[in-house]
Amino acid sequence: MRREYPQAPIPTVGAVVFDRECVLLAKRGKDPNKGLWTLPGGAIELGESVRQAIEREVLEECNITVQAGNVVEVLDIIYHDEEGALRFHYILIDLLCIYIGGAPAAGDDATEARWVHPSEFDRLGVPQRARDIIAKARGDRA
């Protein structure tokens, strides 16, 4: 399925993974949001469950093994181009995931991946939407 100018919304997953006070973030290598630090994730493949998708995506994108947990948030990511045409439309399912193992290393669609302390969010330009999801997930795991 085409990601840019799609014929239908694309279902995707995002992972909220904690290691003590830090959260796993990836620097996006592709649009939308190229260059931004955000939660790792990606598109659900045909025949794959939401949980299988998030576990695969985190491993591919960040070299981290996780176990999928509860849904934190479901939202639409919709971008239009300068002429008003629909450029991207994702349905994003963010899940709280349990860190199993591995050391962050960028792969797949990420140019960087690492554990990030919340005190670094401003310096890295972490989007408010990601911050809100992280805060909600932090409350869910407390």
Topology:
Elements: E1 10-19, E2 22-28, E3 37-38, E4 41-43, H1 50-62, E5 65-80, E6 86-101, E7 110-116, H2 121-124, H3 128-141
Parallel strand pairs: 1-6
Antiparallel strand pairs: 1-2, 1-4, 2-3, 2-7, 5-6
What can you see in these coordinates?
It is a single chain. With 142 residues, the chain is α+β, with helices and mostly antiparallel strands. It is 22% helix and 43% strand. The protein contains three helices and seven strands; from the N terminus they run ββββαβββαα. Strands 1, 2, 3, 4, 5, 6 and 7 form a seven-stranded mixed sheet that branches. Strand 5 (65-80) and strand 6 (86-101) form a beta hairpin. It is globular and about 45 Å long. The model has no long low-confidence stretch (mean pLDDT 93).
